[in-house]
Design goal:
Mean pLDDT: 87
Structural class: alpha/beta
CATH superfamily: P-loop containing nucleotide triphosphate hydrolases
CATH topology: Rossmann fold
Bound molecules: adenosine-5'-triphosphate, magnesium ion
Low-confidence stretches: 1-21
Largest sheet: 5 strands, parallel
CATH class: Alpha Beta
């Protein structure tokens, strides 16, 4: 069986895109990027978007929180450094409120059209940050998920692994260059970030078929190459499965 890489190199795919060609999938695919703050999710989301678009896939971005108008309003409340009075349970509900809007408005319609949906954080992040980080526990997160997500789950999750110091340093450096103050999470304690990392490790252990750990160290290009290899494997495997 030929993998998608052999079927069409980037140049061939770009040509076909310009000719209006789109690879059509019978069913859409949902790929998420996860990892602690500053692990490189947003950077790699855009790299992956370019890679898949060049290969002729119809790609939809569904960023979290903030992929919709409603989500952007909620994002302001969630990430603003001034929201220090936000309690853990309302925080959990706000993340899922934004996600529920994203599921209905963006993700489900795109999957129905056979598109590849790429999201920067999804429910795994809430398990890690609210379930473990805020110590609300996984069952509380799963309860709200069952209402908010309507069964939508990622087919593949790229978990970017980086040490906490590097992640926080990268995130603070980025925040310093941005005008908006979205530093609430980066201001959390070392213990909080350690619990979040433990949450991600638990998710990886519980679902190794879906969650793939990628080394987030090194240059942006090096990390992008590692992600590309994992995504290649995933596409080769899905096209080998009946109906895939
Ligand atoms: N491999 C890398 N090496 C060096 N710097 C990087 C790398 N990847 C990303 N960065 C930089 O680190 C900062 C944080 O990256 P990015 O915003 O992609 O992380 P993130 O995981 O989305 O963070 P957050 O959880 O806060 O949304 C950015 O300024 C980005 O340009
Ligand atoms: Mg980000």
């Amino acid at each position: 069986m030929l993998g998608w890489k052999q079927l069409a190199g980037p140049r061939a795919a770009r040509r076909r895109v310009s000719e209006g060609y789109n690879r059509s999938l019978k069913q859409g695919l949902f790929i998420t990027l996860e990892g602690i703050d500053g692990s490189g999710k947003t950077t790699q989301l855009h790299r992956l978007e370019t890679l898949l678009t060049d290969r002729g896939y119809a790609v939809t971005l569904a960023q979290e929180p903030g992929g919709t108008r409603v989500g952007r309003e909620i994002r302001r409340l969630l990430l603003d450094a001034a929201s220090s009075d936000l309690r853990p349970i309302p925080e959990l509900l706000l993340y899922f409120a934004s996600r529920a809007q994203n599921v209905e408005e963006v993700i489900q319609p795109a999957l129905r059209e056979g598109r590849v949906v790429l999201a920067d954080r999804f429910t795994d992040a809430t398990v890690a940050y609210q379930g473990y980080g805020r110590e609300l526990g996984v069952p509380a997160v799963r309860q709200v998920e069952s209402v908010a997500c309507q069964g939508v789950q990622p087919d593949l999750t790229i978990l970017l692994e980086i040490d906490i110091e590097t992640g926080v340093r990268r995130a603070l450096h980025r925040n310093a260059e941005q005008s908006d103050d979205e530093s609430r999470m980066e201001q959390e304690s070392r213990e909080f970030h350690e619990r979040v990392a433990k949450g991600y490790a638990a998710l990886l252990a519980a679902d190794p078929e879906r969650v793939k750990k990628i080394d987030g160290r090194g240059s942006i290009d090096e990390v992008a190459t590692r992600i590309e290899a994992e995504v290649d494997l995933f596409f080769a495997k899905s096209s080998a499965e009946p109906g895939g």
